[in-house]
Write a structure and sequence with these properties.
Blueprint lengths: L12 E2 L4 E3 L4 E3 L4 E2 L3 H5 L42 H18 E5 L13 E2 L3 E2 L5 E5 L3
Antiparallel strand pairs: 1-4, 2-3, 5-8, 6-7
Amino acid sequence: MRFSCLAPMGIPRFAARDISILNGKYVIPTGTVVLGHIQQIIRDPKVFTNPDEFNPSRFLNEKGEFVKNNQNIVFGTGKRDCLGRSLAQVEFFLFYSSLMQNFNFNWAEGDDLENLSIKGIVGFTQSPKPFKAILTKRPL
């Protein structure tokens, strides 16, 4: 499975001054719109082993505790990263844990599980490709 971002290109920024990169090989002039390709950064094979595979354990230590990785910038970077970051993380946890507590998940018959991918449909944002699943209510 491939790991993806909701907004693979991030938010546009402007260069506040001339910026020299790669030892002066390139110069980004003042006022230039800059888009960081977040999906490429978080899928760098030099940083993440098998970056195209969904593997949440890459962010855990031996004790199963979360370990911060500065290359994991899914919410952007700097002082203007995602304003809703903390709310999104809490809400996702509540939403996901509620689903796991209340439902059993199964694949719909006829779906080809070997070819299932979370690569998604890429535009300014990224959406999952349609798939079929069966949710059954867990007994109380």
